[in-house]
Amino acid sequence: MIAAVDAQQVVNRPCRQGRGHSKGFERMLAERLLEYSQKLDSYTGARDRMRAEGRRSMSKTDEDATFMRMKEDHMLNGQLKPGYNIQNIVDSGYVVGTYCSRDRTDQHTLVPAMEQLRQRLGFDYQGVCADSGYDCLENYRYLEGRGMDAYIKTQTYEQNKKRKVRKDPGNKLNMTYDGKKDQLRCANNTVLHNTGRKGSDGTCLYDAKRGCVGCAYRRACMKGQAAKQRFKRMQYNPVAEEYRAKSLANITSEKGVEARLNRSIQAEGSFTLIKDALGLRRFLTKGMANVETEWILLCMAANALRLQAKIRSGRLGIPTWYHLDTADPLDEAV
Predict the structure, then answer these.
(1) With CB atoms counted within 10 Å of each terminal CB, which end of the chain scores lower, N or C?
(2) How far apart are the C-alpha atoms of 129 and 153, rounded to whole Å?
(3) Residue ranges of the alpha helices (H) in the chain?
(4) What is the per-residue pLDDT for 142?
(5) Per-residue confidence (pLDDT) for residue 334, from 0 to 100
(6) CB 186 within 8 A of CB 169
(7) Are 263 and 129 in contact (CB under 8 A)?
(8) Apex CA 220: angle with CA 217 and CA 225, to 5°?
(9) What is the rounded CA–CA span in Å between residue 84 and residue 57?
(10) How far does CA 7 lie from the centroid of its chain?
(11) Are 215 and 122 in contact (CB under 8 A)?
């Protein structure tokens, strides 16, 4: 016969303590059971919080932080440490807005960062220049809805420059899309039809029903596991590709080239100034609210140093984009 025993009652029973006295076996099991139950409650609470916030990790020392791989040195030798994803919005070298996030990637940080900036400043910039980490359909739709031009570098921008990619018949870059019929046409003039399968982001699966068996480009077009299939199959998002084509036209224009040049200097330079000139390597506080406050104070100090340097060198001048578009001196955010 097995009788249920309350572990808390067993622990609360008086017992002799000190030298020459040892805990009973029942009391030791009860204490161990209470310890494990408390740990289970803490783990369950942490799991529920991570699910509610869409996270996959949480630090015990700072529950608001997420484990990220840090770049500790020039050899990129880093470790997984609790940290925050900090976004800086820079205009003419000055930090005009910041955003603190738990996301390990930058894709889903542009929209909340720009919304926070709009609420604080009361206006929208005419354009936003960002690197390839922000290349996603959500950001393109937001910028278009707010009437801002997207100067976002596509993720395949550097790869598409290579001769190997430009001559690859299986790459979507070398195919033409017919929006009216919703189909792709490859280099061999074979039509890939939309199968109707669509992902959550609008990506569709296109399939060729014929023309791939005896195709002269088959060996170069269908590689790896795709070579085992009879016909070409590929994923394609026509809406996202249309946005990327517009952004590509923007960044390759004369204004876009200078925008990307200034972004790499000003946006990345703001972090360099805070890390090197102010000597910040780790945050001194814990919690997202405290970390964001600390970062804002550091950005204010960096802006003061930037202004002092420009005054000394006589480079106050006009905003970065005024000479390209004189209609509005506050023209671009990088």
Answers:
(1) N
(2) 8
(3) 7-12, 25-53, 110-121, 137-145, 163-166, 218-221, 238-251, 254-272, 288-313
(4) 94
(5) 47
(6) yes
(7) yes
(8) 115
(9) 12
(10) 47
(11) no
The DSSP output letter for 193 is: E
Report DSSP letters for 196-249, one per residue.
EEE-TTS-EEEEE-SS-TT-TTHHHHS-GGGGGSSS-EEEE-HHHHHHHHHHHH
Report the pLDDT value the prediction gives residue 329, as an integer from 0 to 100. Answer: 41
Half-sphere exposure of 62 (CA within 13 A, CB side): 18
Environment class of 65 (CB within 10 Å of its CB; exposed 0-12, middle 13-18, buried 19+): buried
The pLDDT of residue 320 is: 58
315, amino acid identity: R
Q: Would you give the DSSP letter of residue 121?
A: H
The pLDDT of residue 126: 87
- Prediction pTM value: 0.80
How large is the C-alpha radius of gyration of the chain?
Answer: 28
Given this model, what pLDDT does residue 321 score? 52
Residues of the chain with pLDDT under 50: 1-2, 322-324, 326-332, 334
Q: CB of 331 within 8 A of CB of 262?
A: no
Pairing verdict, β 66-69 and 233-236: unpaired
